[in-house]
TrEMBL record:
<comment type="similarity">
    <text>Belongs to the D-isomer specific 2-hydroxyacid dehydrogenase family.</text>
</comment>
<protein>
    <submittedName>
        <fullName>Lactate dehydrogenase-like 2-hydroxyacid dehydrogenase</fullName>
    </submittedName>
</protein>
<dbReference type="InterPro" id="IPR036291">
    <property type="entry name" value="NAD(P)-bd_dom_sf"/>
</dbReference>
<dbReference type="InterPro" id="IPR050223">
    <property type="entry name" value="D-isomer_2-hydroxyacid_DH"/>
</dbReference>
<dbReference type="InterPro" id="IPR006139">
    <property type="entry name" value="D-isomer_2_OHA_DH_cat_dom"/>
</dbReference>
<dbReference type="Pfam" id="PF02826">
    <property type="entry name" value="2-Hacid_dh_C"/>
</dbReference>
<feature type="domain" description="D-isomer specific 2-hydroxyacid dehydrogenase catalytic">
    <location>
        <begin position="26"/>
        <end position="321"/>
    </location>
</feature>
<dbReference type="GO" id="GO:0016618">
    <property type="term" value="F:hydroxypyruvate reductase [NAD(P)H] activity"/>
</dbReference>
<dbReference type="InterPro" id="IPR006140">
    <property type="entry name" value="D-isomer_DH_NAD-bd"/>
</dbReference>
<dbReference type="GO" id="GO:0005829">
    <property type="term" value="C:cytosol"/>
</dbReference>
<dbReference type="GO" id="GO:0030267">
    <property type="term" value="F:glyoxylate reductase (NADPH) activity"/>
</dbReference>
<dbReference type="Pfam" id="PF00389">
    <property type="entry name" value="2-Hacid_dh"/>
</dbReference>
<keyword id="KW-0560">Oxidoreductase</keyword>
<dbReference type="InterPro" id="IPR029752">
    <property type="entry name" value="D-isomer_DH_CS1"/>
</dbReference>
<keyword id="KW-0520">NAD</keyword>
<dbReference type="GO" id="GO:0051287">
    <property type="term" value="F:NAD binding"/>
</dbReference>
<feature type="domain" description="D-isomer specific 2-hydroxyacid dehydrogenase NAD-binding">
    <location>
        <begin position="110"/>
        <end position="290"/>
    </location>
</feature>
Length: 322
């Protein structure tokens, strides 16, 4: 008997094909997210739940005691949408997909940084609206990026990849905040300076890019107080998780021009994006595109296949997080 799997959203076609071949797979052709009740019922009927960041798996959707499900294989590196303690209590393994989305997420962080500093979203909106009156010395002058200081919050794989691009591509100085010490060849090669506190990084940086995990430990790490620590001409970039930033405090800081702007790929209550943010010209807003390239999305799916195959063959699971 093949293990029974449920895939909660549409996945890239080559990945769905392999899943269907190797396992007894229920696909989600309509791509509609599962309701909390459907998620709870999945625990009773499937050996594996193949989840994504668009699913919510708080303790409330887990079955009270035992479940048929033995593994939740997440399509993505961040897993703060899954209550891992609830999974552990029920002997359910949780896996993620680290490594394969590092480059594309770092690329997108740089795209946001450049876009917000150089006002490219604003410029494109103006041109498409037919409101461009031609070149002029004062037209849409933005902030220079090259040579400025980038503060990285969370110097893990994606933080380092973002720093590398900024340092070697744009000659940026790198400072960073990370809870544990980071002193390796990679950070030394970019002369990246680890600062003792988050506030030190916020106060020093022209751009602050967030790369820490979401979830309770980092909820509202960036709040009204920390935003006040930033320079008034600095920009905040978030490709991590929406809950790392107090979104209302950020909107206030942007409206009052306490910081210069923000580039956001993630939001507090996705896919809802507050009208107050959409009204602001000094923000660039993207619909959670960090890992969204054909190559990376297939690679993420293949990592899930590897994790599931190892699990059901009784081998050590490569990307186990719980
Ligand atoms: C991740 O991997 O955590 C992304 O945000 C989902 O694409």
């Amino acid at each position: 008997m093949k293990p029974r799997l449920i895939v909660t959203r549409r996945w890239p076609a080559p990945v769905e094909a392999i899943l269907a071949e190797r396992f007894d797979t229920t696909l989600n052709a309509s791509d509609t997210p599962l309701s909390p009740a459907a998620m709870t019922s999945a625990f009773a009927h499937f050996d594996a739940i193949l989840a994504t960041v668009s699913d919510r798996l708080p303790v409330a959707v887990f079955p009270k005691n035992t479940a048929r499900t033995r593994i939740i294989a997440n399509f993505g590196v961040g897993f703060s949408h899954i209550d891992v303690a609830a999974a552990r209590d029920r002997d359910i393994v949780v896996t993620n997909t680290p490594g394969v989305l590092t480059d594309c997420t770092a690329d997108l962080a740089l795209s946001l940084l450049l876009a917000v500093a150089r006002r490219t979203g604003e410029g494109e909106r103006q041109l498409r609206a037919g409101e461009w009156r031609g070149w002029s010395p004062t037209h849409m002058a933005g902030a220079k990026v090259s040579g400025k200081t980038l503060g990285i919050v969370g110097m893990g794989r994606i933080g380092k990849a973002t720093a590398r691009r900024a340092h070697f591509g744009f000659g940026m100085k790198i400072v960073f905040f990370n809870r544990s010490p980071v002193d390796d060849d990679e950070t030394r090669a970019m002369a990246a300076v680890q600062m003792p506190t988050l506030e030190d990084v916020l106060a020093t940086s022209d751009f602050v890019s967030l790369h820490c995990p979401g979830g309770a430990g980092n909820r509202h790490l960036i709040n009204a107080r920390s935003l006040r620590s930033m320079k008034s001409d600095a920009f905040l970039i978030n490709t991590a998780r929406g809950d790392v930033v107090d979104q209302d405090a950020l909107i206030g800081a942007l409206e009052r021009r306490e910081i210069a702007g923000a580039g956001l790929d993630v939001f507090a209550d996705e896919p809802a994006v507050p009208e107050a943010l959409k009204r602001l010209e000094n923000v660039v807003l993207l619909p959670h595109l960090g890992s969204a390239t054909e190559e990376t999305r297939v690679a993420m799916g293949m990592k899930v296949v590897e994790n599931l195959t190892a699990f059901f063959e009784g081998r050590p699971v490569p990307d186990r997080v719980a």
